[in-house]
Amino acid sequence: xxxxxxxxxxxxxxxxxxxxxxxxxxxxxxxxxxxxxxxxxxxxxxxxxxxxxxxxxxxxxxxxxxxxxxxxxxxxxxxxxxxxxxxxxxxxxxxxxxxxx
Length: 101
Hints:
By secondary structure, the protein is mainly alpha-helical. The chain has a domain at about 25-80. Helix content is about 75%, strand content about 0%. The protein is rod-shaped.
């Protein structure tokens, strides 16, 4: 079926399960990594009062906001509105209640 439809052939890489799981794992890795780093540095600053840690947290937070925006965009597209095999969106739950479904 996929081999016969040119649209599905082009979307096959993005719509397959392993790539979806890889995107989800990457989102969680970014979120958990940022949370662990910032929490560790914050606890270190509380113990030592080192002002360099505040600068490090501020710089990491700036990059983290960009990463958070990108990963939340990926998650918002992938998770609440699963694609059917034809690539059309069939939104349920929060998507339907927000008027997008």
